[in-house]
Specification:
single chain; 81 residues; 0% strand; flat; 3 helices
C-alpha cells in the first residue's frame, strides 16, 4: 500500500477560507474593530507560517550538518594555530 507524500505548506483550502473570512468581516458594518483585527491577526499569522515554510534557506544548516557556512572575511580561524 503506497502512502501519499505529505505536502509542505499551508492548506490551500485554509488560505481560501481565510481570504473569504477577511473579505466578509471587513465589509460587515456591524463587526467591531476588535473583531476585524482578530481576523487580520489570524491572516497575518498564517502568512508568517507560509513564508517560513517557503524559505528553504532558513535552518538549512541544521537540517544538513555536512554543509558548512563560509567563514567571515578576516575572522581568525583554527588553521593558523
Amino acid at each position: 500500500m503506497a502512502r501519499k507524500k505529505k505536502e509542505n505548506g499551508v492548506n490551500p483550502k485554509l488560505l481560501k477560507y481565510l481570504d473569504k473570512l477577511l473579505d466578509e468581516t471587513m465589509k460587515d458594518q456591524t463587526a467591531s474593530l476588535t473583531d476585524k483585527m482578530k481576523v487580520v491577526d489570524r491572516v497575518i499569522g498564517v502568512e508568517k507560517i507560509r513564508l517560513k515554510v517557503a524559505d528553504e534557506g532558513e535552518g538549512g544548516f541544521f537540517r544538513n550538518p555536512q554543509a558548512q557556512e563560509p567563514d567571515d572575511e578576516g575572522a581568525p580561524t583554527n588553521e593558523d594555530e
